[in-house]
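Cross-check.
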Amino acid sequence: MSDMQKAISLVIATFCKYSGREGDPTTLTKAELKELLQNELGELVGKAPDKAAVDRIFSDLDTNQDNLVDFAEFGRMFICLTTTCHEFFTKKK
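Predicted model, tokenized:
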């Protein structure tokens, strides 16, 4: 597998690792999202994001307002985060 294929596979596997712990295996609840953020993105979002921050992130991601985050909604967060990191790390000095 190419590096890009491995990265895609890893993003999908990470989503699946947390989704469905509280029900639907194709979505994240707010608690599942919080755990994913803390465990997988802790260095970028802070080890223990406060409730208000998680609520805000969840609300921003849940574009169809079904009180769940599906993979497409999660993917938008992931690409925004990746874009932000790219801009930060490639910024000219």
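Strands lie at 27-28, 69-70. The two ends are 35 Å apart (CA to CA). Passed to J.P. for a second look.
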